[in-house]
Amino acid sequence: MAKSKKNYIPGTGGFMKPEEVLDNIDIEKNMKVADFGCGAGYFAIPLARRVGKGGMIYAVDVMEPALESVRGRAKVFSILNIETLRGNLEKDTGSGIEAGSLDMVLLANILFQSELKNDILKEAKRVLKKTGKIVVIEWNSDASLGPGAGYRISKENLKDLAKEAEFVLEKEFNAGNSHYGLVFSL
After folding, report:
1. pLDDT, tens digit, for every residue of 14-56?
2. CATH tag, 28-185
3. Among positive and negative, which fits the CA dihedral 51, 53, 56, 62?
């Protein structure tokens, strides 16, 4: 059985369906969105399509090979509204993005990788407009795939961290069998 082009992105193992996940998020034309820890662009590419030519996606990662992959995918799909930025999100102004300039920040499978989760949330808050939103996608505690239990961040712990960073929970959504999703505002 062939996998639907819309639902399957090579390299996600088939367990993450970025297009379906993005269907749960209010993304509008002309938005400016950062994909923090963008990896190979599994979300950056479909985000770029959704915000259209008048929008912009900032794909940020610490790994240059990941950014090269995003640039390559964007070229293959003739997507011109993605800017790749090498940055360390655990440092002050580490994304290199102007303060207060974005409508949304996406954090997909990044927080579990860091011991400095608060610093990443602080950087997301710094780059958001006052009306901005942060979308977090992380591993379910009981997922059979993914990182070990000691690395995962539970939904409740994430809510507490976000509250400490002065984010307000707006919405919870299903991000697939292995992930949960949360949307926060300032």
Report:
1. 567 899 999 999 999 999 999 999 999 999 999 999 999 999 9
2. 3.40.50.150
3. positive
